[in-house]
Design goal:
293 residues; alpha+beta; Uridine Diphospho-n-acetylenolpyruvylglucosamine Reductase, domain 3; 3 domains; five-stranded antiparallel β-sheet; four-stranded mixed β-sheet; 38% helix; disordered N terminus
Length: 293
């Protein structure tokens, strides 16, 4: 009889649990949880921004470093044996605050350089410069690491950048804590970002940031220029024609009194440009010197 009660009790407990879950509305998986959150948003218990952030938090555990890293080809690096002036130029042109320092190749990462650590040398406070004196240890992580685990490590170790390596130990790219946080809170604006709906952002003293999709006609109206728009519709297309190839970030070209520098590009197209107004006879090298002055 004890066995009969046990066998008859199990289905009863299972039925009771199912009934309780139905009455309490407790989610049984991620999909049900998201449905409950969306229902709460529709009933004005959550706003749309909070809902979007919660959904992105749930997605972070499914993403891996390879999904968000800056590819090796687009990494802005400082060369270990480069003169101080050259390193300062790289830092100023990029606008970043942290840089992998490499040796003979990008697979040889010797450490991480913080731009602020060069201030005493840039201001003349110290005479002799050896980049090894200011290097910080580099953190290496596999490209298969999940983002939620990476964020936990960033917080625990107070790191802001990690070098990503592939299965063979070669450098595949880099990732920052900002890259991870953007997966949760959305894109974090920086000094190069342009407002939605706009194509051109001025920074003063003849310096601008442009979307590569800026229509040539709009560029001409803004800068009183006379670029021909019969062959290309956008400034990005004009820059590609002048360079003759798909550029990498950092490449520059001077066109009729304007110096264009590629800020963001991928394997398919250019996304963002930095533009400096120069005299028609100036080259891109002279424009670079003018920016540093």
């Amino acid at each position: 009889m004890n066995g009969d009660r046990s066998s008859s009790g199990s289905p009863q407990r299972s039925w009771f649990e199912r009934l309780s879950q139905a009455l309490l509305g407790e989610p049984q998986d991620r999909e049900q949880l998201i449905e409950l959150l969306r229902d709460a948003e529709q009933r004005n218990l959550l706003d749309s921004d909070a809902l979007a952030m919660m959904e992105r938090v749930l997605q972070v555990s499914e993403l891996r470093v390879r999904d968000i890293m800056v590819p090796r080809s687009q990494m802005v690096v400082v060369e270990r044996d480069a003169p101080l002036a050259e390193s300062l130029t790289t830092i100023c042109d990029s606008g970043h605050s942290r840089f992998p320092v490499v040796g003979e190749s990008r697979d040889e990462v010797n450490g991480i350089l913080l731009a602020k650590d060069l201030l005493p040398y840039a201001l003349g406070g110290r005479a002799e410069f050896n980049i090894r004196d200011v290097l910080r240890p580099a953190v290496f992580i596999p490209e298969s690491k999940r983002l939620n685990m990476l964020l936990k490590e960033f917080r625990a170790n107070r790191n802001h950048m990690a070098v990503v390596v592939d299965e063979y130990g070669g450098v595949a790219g880099l990732v920052t804590i900002e890259d991870v946080l953007e997966q949760i809170v959305g894109e974090i604006a920086d000094e190069h970002d342009i407002d939605e709906g706009a194509f051109i952002k001025g920074h003063g003293k003849g310096h601008y940031t442009l979307k590569a999709l800026t229509p040539i006609e709009e560029f001409n109206d803004y800068f009183d220029s006379d670029f021909n728009h019969d062959e290309f519709d956008t400034i990005g297309g004009l820059v590609l024609k002048k360079l003759g190839h798909l550029p990498k970030p950092g490449e520059e070209v001077a066109i009729e009194g304007f110096c264009f520098k590629v800020l963001h590009a991928d394997s398919r197209r250019v996304h963002l440009l930095q533009m400096t107004i120069i005299k028609p006879e100036q080259s891109s090298e002279q424009a670079k010197a003018a920016r540093q002055a």
